[in-house]
Amino acid sequence: MQKVKVLQVCAWVLLLWRCWGVLGYPLDCKDEQGSIISCTSISLEKLLDRVIQHAELIYHVSEESCTLFEEMFVPFTMRTQQNRARNTCITKAFPIPGSKSEIQKISDKWLLHSVLMLVQSWIEPLVYLQKTLDHYDGAADTILNKTKWVTNKLSSLEQGIVELIRKMLDEGLLAVEHQQTLTRFDVQPEVVESILRDYAVLTCFKKDAHKMEVFLKLLKCRHTDKMSCYIS
Prior knowledge:
By secondary structure, the protein is mainly α. It contains 6 helices and 4 strands. It is elongated and about 50 Å long. It comes from Acipenser sinensis.
């Protein structure tokens, strides 16, 4: 089988710098009457709840997308590739704690900025994924539509996280440099390799989406019930 020629585009950037471009467009929220208002106008508690709701929905849809793709395209004997995918996730090199004990120890600042790193790192790969899914023979529109929905929700979540940073930390962004590695393909991959590649993207995103949700719920717990916060 012809090997896929992969061009690794690596650039050291201030990924968090990107969020300044969305500060003027904060996440829309609803007041008690259901009217749309700017999230800069609502309380910190309601903003945090709104952001957590976004993260929960994103994780739920990512699970559905991954399962649907697996059932449609990935033979059972190939599903062990999921372990391999976890070792090649684009966010693996990011300075984000992975173990429960490490996560419990990090500050509120790092919880928020870690979520922001994850959110921003996935927007572009999901756009590329939409393009590849669009070329699958017999691919259900459901998978493609879910991917488009998640991409839009990630942009909204990004705006909400930026606003949380302003409200909770009363400061600008952390000046943290890290490597963002995007995998692009300059040749048409073989069918099996294409499936495994997209399966790896969906699997990695599901893992990171769960991490976003966990981080935000831990953050809320610290501000409401500090004595009994734990990661399940």
